[in-house]
User: Fold these one by one.
Assistant:
Number 1:
Amino acid sequence: MKKTFIIIAAVFAALACLSFTIKAYHDPETVILGSWKEVHWEYDRVYHSAHIDRAISSDAREVKEMSATDLGIIDAESWVFNPDGSLILSSHHIKKQASWKIKGRGNILMITYDNNRVERYNIARLTKGKLELNFDTDANIRGIAKVSCVKI
C-alpha cells in the first residue's frame, strides 16, 4: 500500500512539473523576452486615395515614416523586452523607453509610454525566433500594417 502511494505521488509530481514546463515554454510573456530586430515591414491599404496610392506605390518606407508620427514602435529598428515590463525601442538616432504587457489570450501587445499614450498591437505570430505584429494605422493612412522581427 505504501509503495502504491509513493508511485502515485511520484507520477502526479512528474505530471505537475511537465505541465508547468509546457506552460512556461508557450507563455507569450516568457517567449517575448529579450532583444528583437525588425527585418520586414509591410502595409496593406484598405482606403484608396490618389495621394496615399502614390506614396505606397513609390516607397513603403515613406508610408512607414508617415505612420511613425503616431506610433512609437513602428519607428524602432530594435526592441528589448525586459522581464520587469520595461521596453526599450531604439534605432540609429533615437531611443525610447516604455512599458509592455500582453493582454487578452496572449494575442495583444499593449505598450504604454511615459505620457500615458497606449498602443495596442495584435500578435500574429510569436515563436522563440520570430515576432509578427499587426496593427491599424492612423486615419491619414487607413490600412493595416505588419512588422516582422527576429530574435537577436
Number 2:
Amino acid sequence: MSEILVVTFQNGKTLLVEFGERVPSPYFGASSSSGPCLPLLPCHLEQAFAAFVATLDREIRNMIDAAGAITGLLSGEKQTDHRMDLLVVELAGTDHLHNALMDEVRALHARVNVLEEAEVESHERIRDLEIQLAAALEPAEVPDLEPEDEPEEVEEDDVESVISSTGSGA
C-alpha cells in the first residue's frame, strides 16, 4: 500500500510525494516485540520531511548552478576547439607562403654569393690596375746628359714662330 504526502512550501508551491511502502511505526520501550525499531525524531514527521525536501531543493539548485557552470565551460571549450580548427586551417594556408618565402631566401642567398664573388674579382682587377698605374707613373730611366748634350734654351720668339707656323699650316 502506498501513501501520498502533500507538502506546501512558503512560496506557494505544492509537492506531492508518494511512498511505495509504509514505514513501520516506532516501537515504544514498553513493547515486548523484538521487531525493527526506528529512532525517535526530535520533531514531527511532517517537519522532518519538509526539512528533507528543503535540503533536496537546495541541492537541486546547487546542481543546476553546477550544471550551468559546466555548460559554460563546455561552451568555452567548443569555442576554443572551433578557434583551434580555424587556426589549423589558417596555418595550412600559410604553408605555401612559407615555401615561397624560403625559395625567395634561397634565391637571395645565391645572388649574394654571386655578388661576393664579383666583389672579389673587382678587388683583384682594381689591385692589378693599381699595380699597372704605379708602374706607368714611375719615371722612365733617363740617360744622364753630359753638359755638352744639354738642350738649347728656346727663346720666346722661337716658340711663337713655331706656334704660328703650325697654326697657319693647319
